[in-house]
Each structure stands twice: as structure tokens, then as C-alpha cells.
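Bumping with the actual sequence this time:
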Amino acid sequence: MTSFLFPIADLAGGVRSKNDVAPFLSDIARATLDSADALDLFKDLIEGKAGGPESNGFMAFDAHGGDAGCQLRAGMMQEVFLVYRYINTDLPEVWVKFRALIDTYTTKLRQIHENAKEACKDIITHKVHPKVYGGPTEDTLKMFGWDTTDASREEQTLGSLVRQALVSQGSELPPNISFLAYFLQDSEAGMSDQESSRPSSSDSSSTGTLTSTYATEYDFDGSSSQTSVCGVEDTEKLRLGPLATHHGGVDSKVGQSIARVHSFFKDTLPMMCSWDPMSVYTLTRFVVFCYVLSKYKAFSIVNDTVGARTAPEDAAEVSYSFIRPYTGKKKVPGKPQRILRELRELQSWMSDLSCAWQKSLAQRSVQNGDMEQLIVSTMQESDKGLKSMACYPGYLLLRESWASMNCTLLLVDRHFCPSGGFHYNVFLATMKSPAFNACPCQRHPLGVQVAWSLERIQLTDLIQDSDSISPHLTIMGNSISGGHTEYMKRFGNKSRPHTADSCAENEAHVEQFLSADHDRLALAFFASHDSYAFPVSDAEGAVSGTAGDGHGSQDTETAFVGNRIDLWADRIASRGEFAAAGCARTLKESWLTSRREADEMGTGHDGMHTFTWQHALLETKARVAKRIERWMEIGELMPLHAPVGERRQ
């Protein structure tokens, strides 16, 4: 029902059967309430009015996207927060207009919620004939006051308002949101938010002409006129086509593969979304869908692994709560197909937007304009419409973006000690500004070097931190002497916190943690992490099993991603950028080397002694600390998640 309120595709038509009308109306009641709560909470978080450390915060938007990319949604929400917090504090005249728009949304949604609840009561108690409410979806929503065909709310040109405010103030963007200049160019060119964010069928590899410091200027074919990979300067733009003129000993194999490379990149999957944090169309759907996919999410053990799943039974229970008071049937309704379809539609759109965000990061990347070609070429789509991109190159883009903003991450290490219990160790990790002239290797992929500084911090210090508004990227992970098998044994034994006054083994582990190279550790983790949560096609068109179900599927995934990196390097060489192509070819070996050293580094499947990332989310320091305290109190071993209702056991 959420996707009916905020359409992402054509609405299903037709008249509902008599027995389907009341459940449909109860879904409207649920979806409107969730949507209003999501937008109100987002507004309050931006304004710093969301409540204390035990209240719902950014974790309420920790969406389960159905992929292996929780770090993507955390990064996307961080970017959205930075933009809107800046507008709130520095451009108040723009914020007032945006806030009024959100208030209009939520007021109408809450009124429709009440109307839908009353309609449920009318049908069941007062025996109002269902045909009164049983028309096509658009007609029913319009009758309640929600017109899905009226897009005027979503055509607000927030980008142009921001640009005008900056010009009138004579202001410049602060360093932590300098990336916003990239999106303001569309507004300067006269493109509305609606045009830049609605589904597009354009070639996924095309780009506009960009002049931001975070973008490289492109010709229509994607060739660069500024700095390419590893700082190599291009002296001319070379079209992608047959190399009639050979430049200084072109590799004959590269020359022979030009047509194949051209065809490959031309046939990459299209994206239906584009990322623009100032688009009302994108922003409302992102906020609402994240909230819904977080609220109706549960962590569980599947195939001997801790993971997230959608919880349609929870959504069905909320819907049924608007009917139960008027019927004698008290039974919990299970998992109706309509709710399964709803959550899958939201996940499909969210996965597409996540890919669009990575494409946006690639377009803004300083390290290499061609990163867009690489990341887009790795996109795969499941039978259920979920899209994913390769994990390792995607993390390289996040790494550059986070380091450019000098992000401070919260690393939450749950360390299992020999006593049979576990400890929570929390660290602040600041990523320093990247250097782009290092020698390419697995420690400095594509020549980009990033240093981390770490310090241990106590929960009381997090709770008492003076900044109760700004969220931090939070990495929840585990460490144990051994690997995944030992970790799952502790999980199965329901380990409890080790409450001894001191634990020498944990203190020794903390020293090891502080001395570790966490940039190298993260590179190794993402190099060895499964990229796809569904079967993928390899370079020859064969199909693997589900990612993570055995070495065969991992080998196929490795071959698939490796093939894309090879073709990407060949494409750079086909333009005559031989030094850049040589640097690009080092990426594959950097990736494979990092994969091989994951266990030795203590972040792999068979070696978790240092720190293995488990879940990434966005939250304020105090709320993270309060969640940890609660997890210790109840002995919870699942990743941190929002206190949105209590899960049924």
C-alpha cells in the first residue's frame, strides 16, 4: 500500500472483491500512518527535536534492502542528513518552505489514516456495502483525499531555491557538503528536481558536463578531458571506436577487443532512478520506504548465518489491528500476498536507488572519471527485480567519499572472550583526507591512500556527548579467536556479557584492535564479501547459485567481477590512455590480494580475531550507547536495530 501512496509504477486497476475491501482499507490505514510517522520523524531529526537518547532516531530508517548493502543506505541517509541539516541551519528561508511541504504531506496522510480506520468500522460494524470503497486504487485514494495523479507536490525545485539562497547570501558550501555543488548544477541549467529524479530510460553510462571539484568533465562517450585515474593528464579526447591510428605501440590484444568492449558497456542494465537528495520525489520515497523496510524487518539465522529478512507478518498485524476491534476473529493474519508484494516493490525501488547513489559517487569521484563505467558494468538484477553492484569497487567509492568528508565512524566491537562471554568495545575512527598519488596496490587501490585514526571511548562518554543531533556511521562487528564456526557456536550457546571487573584477554584484544590497519582491514572485508544476494551470470553467461551458498557460486562471482574489471581497463586502453590503463589493471590484483588476506587480517570467514563487519547503520552517539546498554541487559546477540515496537518471539 505504501507504493500506492508514493507510486513508483502504474497502480493496479480493477475492482476488489467484497472480502478484499476491508483488508485493503486496513492497509491504507497502516501505510498512511507509517508514512506520516516517517516524514515527521525525519523532520524532527533534522531540527534536533526527536527526543532523548532512548527515543527513535536514525535507526528507524535502517532499511532491509534485500541485498548485501546496508552500508549503502547508511551512507545515503548520512548524505541526506548533511544536506537538510545545512539547509535547516544556514538557509532557513529554504527550510521553512520545505518544512511546510512536509507538514502538508503529514497532515493529509493522518487525515486519510483516520478516514480509512472509519471506513473499516463502517464496513464491519455498520454493514456499509464494500462497493462504496471497492473501486480502483486511484479512485479509492482520491475519495479519501490523496490524488496520486497530482504531482505538483513533487515538482518543487528545491535545488534552485538552495542555489538562489547561496547567491543572495554570497555563501559557499562548507567542506563536508561540497558534493552538493554537483547537484546544484542541474538547477542552474534549469532542470527541475522532478525531471532529474523520475524514472529515466536514458543510457545508464551517459553523463552531463560537470564542473564541480568532485567531478571530471566528460564528452558524450564518457572520455575524460581532465584528470584520469592515478592523476594521468589526458591531452585529447579519444572517441571509442576502431583505432585506425595506433598510438606508440598499442597492445594488439587491446586493439582487437575494442568492439567487444564497446558492445559490453553499451548493453549494461539501465537504472530507473537517479540520485538527487534535493528532489522531493526522491526524498519522500527514500525516507518513507526506508522507514517501512526498517519497521517490518527482523534479524534471524538462515543457513547458519545471521541476516535480515522482511517481516510481512508484522505489517499484517498492524493492518489487522484496525479491523480486530470490530470482528470476533482474533487470529493473527499471517503473511498476505498483497503485503509481500508491497515490501518487494519497495525493496526493488530501493535497490535501484542504491545503485544510482553509487553511480552518483562515481561521477563525483576525484580518483577516476571512469569509475562510473566500472561500477555500472557490475550491476546485476535478480528475478524479483533487486539490483546490486559489486561490493569492492562500491566500497572504494564510499571510502573516497567518507574520507573526503573526514567522517568519524563508530566501531562497535562485540568481542567473544575465552570465558564464554562477550564484551562491547567501542571506538571512534576518523578517516583522514585521501591522498591520490600513492603507488597502486591492495593497500592503496588505484593509488588512493586513506589513513584512519582510532581511539577507544566509553558508553558514558557517548551518552554525555554535547552533539545530540548529528548521526555517525556506525559499524557493528564481531571478533573471536577463530572464525565463523566458532562465532555461531557462541551464538547458539546464547553467550552472555562477561561481567568480571577485568578481562586480560579482552584488554589484549583492544590493544590489537587499536594497532590494526583498519583501512586495510575494511578493504579486505569488502573484497571477500559476497556482492550479490541472488544468482549472477558470469562472463560467459553461465549462472551461479545463490551468493554465499558454496565455493562454486563465489568462484563464479569472482570471475564475473574480475571480467568487468578487465573490460574496464581495456576500455581505458582503447582510448590511448596507456598509463591510466596500467593503473586500472592493478585494481584486479589489489582486489584479489585483499580477498586472500582477509582471514589472516582477522576479518574473514575463517579468521575473525580482529574485527569482522556485520551491520552498518546511521545513528547518534547517545542512541548507539543506549542500544548497547539495552542489548547487554537482555543478552541480545543480533545486530543493533531500532526500538520500533517489540518483535514477537
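The C-alpha cells above came from a reply further down the thread. Residues 365-538+554-634 form one domain.
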